[in-house]
Write a structure and sequence with these properties.
Elements: H1 19-25, H2 43-47, H3 57-66, H4 71-89, H5 92-95, H6 104-107, H7 123-128, H8 147-157, H9 173-179, H10 194-205, H11 217-229, H12 237-260, H13 265-291, H14 301-316, H15 322-326, E1 329-331, H16 343-351, H17 359-362, H18 383-389, H19 393-397, E2 401-403, H20 407-437
Antiparallel strand pairs: 1-2
Length: 446
């Protein structure tokens, strides 16, 4: 009976307020129907790029870029993963120049929830960036004597996905004057990673920055004050908590739910029309045979049309096409089409090593902005937008297909298809029995 009442991951309402509000209202993993997400598709596996398409880290960024339009959350989050690691591995003499920040967290309006902890977290999230700690401002958390063991864990966890952070180039001179607030007065430049932190502030935190995080006025002022005095990772505690809560409890469940759909809007509309047509054909067969002189048992043939049509309409209501699922494929998304891409671009995309993406070197061609210091997340000028808007409806309907490789996603789709078949059977059986029980009309043939 459990298959009849299986629920896919529920949609987590996305609030329009700043990140602090989103993290408070986003709910806990239990509220987000985490039980409906298999372990293979956990947040940690997606972030570590251990999932296959269409649930890989690149697909997650695609979703945040083109669907929810808040890709800066993940871009900044990935930078924090790398920055926290590099700060841990920095020489102790350099780290002493950046003392832990102890004032900011106490002023924060966003306190960590005791329900944020996720069992079975991988070292990347549980230890390496300490995402579930109550407070990383405690200096003992960052003592150099832990660096060696930390580096060992890092090498074991991230061997499969190197974030490819290229060396940070000197900050652009005009960027700070353009984006940074007037009260921004940085600490001495001899602090480790100070130039990089300045670029991060100008790119993600300062008002009007290209990838401005959706922070409240008070939270933004708190973070700027902390980064003004130190480059220690504890200065990012507030942002870390809000991003982890938002990505884990809101963006990730919604991404998994969105990834379940294997057809575009045109295909889904056509599929629903096809399913309704099958149901109507079933009624036509049943009514015609009921009014005839033929044996009532011939009316059972209408059940096949009812069951097939009902199965498809239930599956289509959740964005699933039974035929595409049986073929283990899905249709391309609009931004994945390469009709507009020339041969050189195509060769470059195929030749990229997905395990080591150098963000800075791909910013001019990579279709999704994976680079840390890239342009604003505005895809209006990308070639596919104009191309797809001029594409004929029937061509969108028969969009090309690509294999679904992630077994965790296939398991969710399998359960949803079986659920649709089971409910269709429960609806078809009493309907068939009712038509079989009706006496013959004896109207034809004569």
């Amino acid at each position: 009976m459990s298959i009849l009442f299986y629920k896919r991951p529920e949609y987590v309402l996305r609030h329009n307020g700043p990140l602090a509000e989103c993290s408070r209202k986003g709910g806990t993993p239990q509220d987000c129907s985490a039980a409906a997400i298999p372990p293979e598709l956990s947040f940690e596996n997606v972030i570590c790029n251990k999932c296959l398409p269409p649930c890989s880290l690149q697909d997650f960024l695609d979703y945040l870029t083109y669907v929810t339009r808040d890709a800066e959350n993940l871009q900044f989050y990935l930078w924090m993963v790398d920055y926290f690691q590099r700060f841990r591995n920095a020489p102790k003499s350099e780290k002493e120049l950046s003392p832990p920040w102890k004032n900011g967290p106490s002023q924060s309006a966003c306190r960590p929830s005791t329900q944020m902890s996720v069992k079975g977290s991988t070292p990347l999230v549980a230890k390496e960036i300490d995402m579930h700690s109550e407070d990383i401002s405690n200096g003992s958390t960052w003592e150099g004597d832990q660096s060696e063991g930390y580096a060992d864990d890092h090498s074991q966890t991230l061997d499969s996905v190197k974030f490819g952070m290229s060396p940070i180039s000197p900050p652009v001179k005009h960027s700070r004057e353009k984006f940074a607030p007037q009260q921004w007065q940085v600490s001495p430049q001899n602090q480790p990673f100070r130039s990089e932190i300045n670029r991060i502030v100008n790119h993600y935190i300062a008002p009007g920055s290209p990838r401005e995080l959706n922070l409240s006025h008070n939270d933004r002022a708190t973070v700027l004050q902390a980064l003004e005095h130190t480059t220690h990772p504890s200065a990012l505690t507030l942002v870390k908590r809000m991003l982890d809560s938002t990505l884990r409890n809101q963006s990730h469940p919604n991404f998994v739910r969105w990834s379940i759909c294997n057809g575009n809007r045109q295909w889904t509309v056509a599929l629903r029309a096809f399913a309704i047509m099958n149901i109507l054909i079933g009624f036509a067969i049943a009514i015609a045979l009921t009014l005839s002189k033929y044996s009532r048992w011939w009316r059972i043939f209408a059940a096949f049309e009812w069951w097939f049509g009902t199965t498809n309409i239930i599956a289509a209501s959740q964005g699933l096409c039974v035929l595409l699922h049986r073929m283990h494929t899905r249709q391309y998304h609009a931004w994945e089409t390469k009709d507009y891409t020339n041969d050189d671009d195509e060769a470059m995309l195929k030749g990229l090593d997905i395990n080591f993406i150098n963000y800075e070197s791909t910013k001019s061609k990579w279709p999704v902005k994976m680079e840390v210091f890239g342009p604003a997340n505005d895809y209006g000028d990308e070639p596919w937008v104009d191309h797809y808007s001029r594409k004929a409806w029937w061509r969108k309907l028969f969009e090309r297909r690509i294999p679904v490789q992630e077994n965790g996603l296939k398991s969710i789709q399998n359960r949803m298809i079986r659920q649709a078949e089971a409910w269709a059977l429960l609806i078809t059986i009493p309907l068939t029995v009712a038509f079989v029980a009706i006496p013959k009309g004896n109207l034809y043939p004569s």
